[in-house]
Amino acid sequence: MKNIDSEGHVTGKSIYLDDIPTINGTLYGVIFNSSCAHGTIDSIDYSKALKLVGVHRILTYKDIPGENQIGGIFPDEPLFAKSEVHFQGQPIALILAESEEIGFHARELIEIAFTEREIIVDPREAQEKGELIFPPRTFKLGNVEDSWSNCTHIFEGTADTGGQEHLYIETQGAYAVPLENGNIKISSSTQGPTAVQRTAAKVLQVGMHNLEVDVVRLGGGFGGKEDQATPWAVMAALGVQITNKPVKVVLHRMDDMKMTGKRHPYSSDYKIGFDSDMKIIAYEATFFQNAGAAADLSPAVMERTLFHATNSYFVPNIIVKAYSCKTNLPPNTAFRGFGGPQGMFVIESAIMHASNKLGIPAYEIQRKNLIVDGNEFPYGQIADGVELTNCWNTVDTKFDIAATQNRITDYNTTNHASKKGMSLMPISFGISFTKTPMNQARALVHIYSDGSVGISTGAVEMGQSVNTKMLQIAAQAFSIDPSRIRLESTNTTRVANTSPTAASATADLNGKALQKACNALTDRLKESAAKKLGVSTKHIEFKSNRILSNGNDAGISWNELVDQAFLERVCLTENGHYATPKIHYNKETEKGHPFAYHVFGLALTEVTVDCLRGTYDVDSVKLVHDFGKSMNLSVDLGQIEGGLIQGIGWMTMEELSYNNQGRLLSNSLSTYKVPDIYSIPKEVIVEHVETSGTDMAVLKSKAVGEPPLMYGIGAYFAINNAVQAFNPKAKLAFDAPFTHEKVLMGLYSK
Ligand code: MTE
Ligand code: LUZ
Ligand code: MOS
């Protein structure tokens, strides 16, 4: 099925938050935020700003009736700073003005004085000073200490990855309008409508039932709106509560880049030991996560780093430890992969380190250590349904790894001013929220008396086409034309207590809840049909808008059956609930079975490095992916291409730059480079692996949202490989992004 949004998107008719018609009298919120990364506020003078014509009011922490608190996991983040600030961009006040322009002007007129305190931007420095967001965690398997003596080769080093700006095309925003009796409707560009509802209720000191949160769609989220869409929505709702006027808060791009958190930068230490056959015997890693100034989702992100610390390899003896380090940057947050990519980069660096030192191709080491069914992950889950060897063999059959290597070696022998490099990047990504209770969803289905259908789920459409998948599921369950089905907005009043649209699990969780609702309705309709036809329900089938009895057209259409059931007073509405079975996790022992299943894949990346300039091109990415049984191949291919390129961007060019005052220097698109049409790989080939799939995935169609991002890590190691070909003695730190400058320095390093 074609993506149901494609026509609206290309004709510009799709509705985003800022397209919602504004009501007369709407006030526009502009956020006055901290220009100091760490300090105490000595004085603030709002008087000049308040005198500006068109400024209605300025809200501060003093105006909050409930708790001045937006922390989702830990209560450590105020909505508005009171007497201290902890990062540049921290919200201090909300200016409510008759236009955005007036609001921006008023912001310039606010006078503030700080006493500056020590600013920390480096996670290792924070850890040394005891500045942790919460205590460290450790995953273990086997006995690492005793294993080093059994190793033939041991390599130690550090591996760092930078942050990443989400750069959703639609910036953060919300529009809140007063309803009667103090109730408020909040339209929000959020991945987590329930998070907005819960947090706003706490801040406004009202019940969740007083707030209706509605989401039509997002112009991208990528994790950046899982928790961090909340503050603006809460501010808008607070504005409504206080003024009884509609309030709109939509961030300007530069405010968005300055105020919101990003992918967590990590700095990590590794130690890896191999036997004489290059089997990994032992692995030790310490991760220093740069959490920023508050917890936000850092505990969960850090946990996923530990879960993916071994990527696709079986390691019998392992100890991995992670620190969440408190720094004076905006609180970092969810970003596609959610800490997993950061963990995988470190073990890939350790393997590349061994490869460079021993002159053995990295892919030979990788191949020998792939996880197979029955292997134990460090967190206790036993691997099953593993497709890594299958993926490897498929890549080899389709793209010929040895021939690729030979072609590259030939090129490199005859070319001196440019060198080619290659890498293989396997991925294994666990599907499920690592917090077990979050793995549940609901769906509400109405069959209207004319036979058309309305569906509401907790899934938020953000470009990943989850609505198309939901429509497919319902159309298939009822066997009716998709044009007869409407996907409603995501609304907390229709579907309550939702988990955020995240963890790649949205289609699985909401799709399975939807299937349950549809199946219950189908059962009821079948009973009605069976009664009329005088046959048993098991002989009734629905096919292409018609009712079949014993395989033959029964002379009744879907519409007629629905009408008949309605007249018989059959309930034509159903609510489905799904909770992922089998999963559990014990944080005390750090053991359990947290994931419903894993998604596997393998990417073969080739690059060419210009050895005079340090520039490079990604020539090709040829990959084999474990779709399970894809329910919508064009949607899933779009996710793979998008994720891959987002991953390449993170690994090669996207470089966040903060000065030592904690000020974001790369605060616009002229200073923060993202992949464009010229930097995408010249060739991208995506093949699927033959598999029977898993019933834990909806219609056996495995989750696809995040895993492909990690194929992009391959670009880093392919560049490393090319630089090494030019200068075998190159001193290369594992330090992503591998910008042209770093490549140039590496090429001529000694
Ligand atoms: N694709 C588009 N176009 N836009 C997005 O914001 N977010 C990604 C991924 N793909 C995103 C996207 C992230 S971070 C996740 S977790 C998944 O989509 C969420 O959707 P799913 O659970 O339906 O895969
Ligand atoms: N969000 C979350 C996530 O809250 N828990 C997770 O495990 C997760 N995983 C990936 C992306 N977002
Ligand atoms: Mo995605 S990082 O789970 O929103």
Write the layout of secondary structure elements.
Blueprint: H1 6-11, E1 27-33, E2 39-45, H2 47-51, E3 55-59, E4 84-85, E5 91-97, H3 100-108, E6 111-116, H4 123-128, E7 132-141, H5 144-147, E8 153-161, E9 173-178, E10 184-188, H6 193-204, E11 211-215, H7 230-243, E12 247-250, H8 253-259, E13 266-274, E14 280-292, H9 298-307, E15 317-326, H10 340-358, H11 362-368, H12 388-399, H13 401-414, E16 418-431, E17 440-447, E18 453-457, H14 466-478, E19 485-487, E20 490-491, H15 506-533, E21 540-543, E22 546-549, E23 552-557, H16 558-567, E24 573-579, E25 584-586, E26 591-593, E27 597-610, E28 616-625, H17 633-652, E29 683-688, H18 713-726, E30 734-735, H19 740-747
Parallel strand pairs: 1-12, 8-30, 10-11, 14-15, 18-19, 28-29
Antiparallel strand pairs: 1-5, 2-4, 2-6, 3-5, 7-15, 8-13, 9-10, 9-12, 11-20, 13-14, 16-27, 17-18, 17-24, 21-22, 22-23, 25-26, 27-28
Helix pairs in contact: 6-7, 9-10, 10-18, 12-13, 14-15, 15-16, 17-18
The chain binds ligand MTE, pteridine-2,4(1H,3H)-dione and dioxothiomolybdenum(VI) ion.
Residues 220-223, 336, 462-464, 466, 501-507, 639, 642, 703, 705-706 line the site of ligand MTE.
